[in-house]
Write a structure and sequence with these properties.
The complex is a heterotrimer of chains A (111), B (99) and C (131). Chain A contains 5 helices and 2 strands; from the N terminus they run ββααααα. Helix content of chain A is 49%, strand content 7%. In chain A, a hairpin with a 2-residue loop joins strand 1 (3-6) and strand 2 (9-12). The relative contact order of chain A is 0.18. The radius of gyration of chain A is 13 Å and the shape is globular. Chain A starts with a strand and ends in a 10-residue tail after the last helix. The longest helix of chain A is centred in the middle third of the chain and has 17 residues, at 43-59. Chain A is mainly alpha-helical. In chain A, helix 1 crosses helix 5. In chain A, strands 1-2 form a two-stranded antiparallel sheet. By secondary structure, chain B is an alpha/beta fold. Chain B has a 5-stranded parallel β-sheet. With 131 residues, chain C is of the alpha/beta class. Chain C has a single domain (13-130), classed as Hypothetical Protein Ychn, Chain: A (3-Layer(aba) Sandwich). Chain C has a 5-stranded parallel β-sheet. The two termini of chain C are 24 Å apart. The chains are: A mainly alpha (111), B alpha/beta (99), C alpha/beta (131). The interface between B and C is medium-sized, with 26 and 26 residues.
């Protein structure tokens, strides 16, 4: 699988650019993935990325977007737990893009 | 001889076949799904305890832990780690894997 | 997964799906694969039941530590099913008894069914998928 150099460290990614070993994840990697995805990271972006990492630690999966939306609504309020807000942050799909930045695998069932 | 069983005793007959053929003084090492056999309250518990009179029964610790069974191991069963697995193989002249 | 969420608008037909889990975790890949299929099916808004019988009841044991065998601890994922609106989890009483297990040993809330109740549940399904 391809290797990329991020902040002076070699990391392995899959053919779609997702991090292979999620224990390697750090903020530098997140920033690198964000540039790849053409996403400019704001506090709102980090909030979702950190939420995803916590979700993964608890359940060992990346959630489907519908599940993510609902769970974010529960934790951060309805103004954030909706498709419009999440797609504004991650235009090519919150599940796909935010998971990549969070160093998680692609959500199960994602085509 | 060292007998190695890796299939669940409640799914396959390999443990039963193994215990029927293992001669006195032999060692039986349970790994992977076979480790459920040495847990308290399990269907194979009585068989294992009876067999332990003539055989040395071992179970692989990491496989017990991965199945949430570390705290349920029957008395008289020796829990070994991967190093212990290697030692058992080295100690015995021959191995039989009941696939 | 947005692509799939759009698809559940499709036919609007809701069928009763039963996922029948009969294998212990880790020793074979059935348990993990079955769980992934269930998570995918959840996107289609079907009436999903998950049933655990025979060695399948071992999938739900709590207190798992998989570090030693270097595989993912997917027992945690069963706790995410609620968020996927999969709330019908059933275990077979006889299989639990044969393994010395009770509901307190399990990582999620389940309904325990007798063999007869399980048979009736299976008979009323449109689709049964076995792992």
């Amino acid at each position: 699988m391809p290797m990329v150099e991020i902040a002076g460290k070699e990391v392995e990614v899959d053919e779609e650019g997702y991090l292979v070993d999620l224990s390697q994840w750090n903020e530098d990697i997140a920033k690198y993935m964000a540039v790849e995805e053409k996403v400019e990271m704001t506090d709102g972006h980090w909030e979702v990325v950190n939420f995803l990492r916590e979700y993964y630690a608890e359940y060992q999966i990346a959630p489907a977007v519908r599940v993510l939306t609902k769970a974010i609504g529960k934790k951060l309020g309805p103004d954030k737990g909706n498709n419009k807000y999440l797609y504004e942050l991650f235009p090519y799909g919150p599940a796909k893009q935010a998971c990549k930045i969070a160093g998680l695998p692609k959500p199960t069932g994602c085509i | 001889m060292l007998h190695i069983v890796n299939k669940s005793a409640t799914d396959r007959g390999s443990l039963e076949s193994c215990l029927a053929m293992a001669t006195k003084g032999s060692a039986v090492l349970l790994i992977e799904d076979a480790v459920y056999a040495v847990t308290k309250g399990g269907a194979a518990a009585a068989k294992i305890q009876a067999a332990a009179a003539d055989l040395k029964i071992y179970a692989l610790g990491p496989d017990l832990a991965a199945r949430g069974m570390s705290g349920r191991v029957l008395d008289g069963v020796n829990v070994v780690d991967y190093g212990g697995f290697v030692d058992l193989v080295a100690e015995h002249k021959s191995c039989q894997s009941w696939l | 997964m947005s692509e799939m969420d759009d698809m559940d608008e499709g036919s609007g037909i809701i069928k009763k799906f039963m996922f029948l889990n009969r294998k212990a975790p880790h020793g074979t890949v059935y348990a993990l694969e079955g769980l992934e299929v269930v998570l995918i099916t959840a996107a289609f808004d079907q009436d999903v039941s998950m049933v655990f019988t025979d060695d399948g009841v071992y999938q739900l044991i709590k207190g798992v530590d998989t570090k030693g065998i270097e595989v993912k601890d997917f027992s945690k994922t069963y706790r995410a099913l609620d968020g996927y609106d999969i709330e019908k989890l059933y275990v077979d009483q006889k299989s639990m008894d044969a393994r010395g297990l009770t509901e307190e040993d399990l990582i999620v809330d389940v309904t325990v069914l007798s063999v007869d109740e399980m048979a009736n549940l299976m008979a009323e399904q449109d689709v049964v998928i076995s792992f």
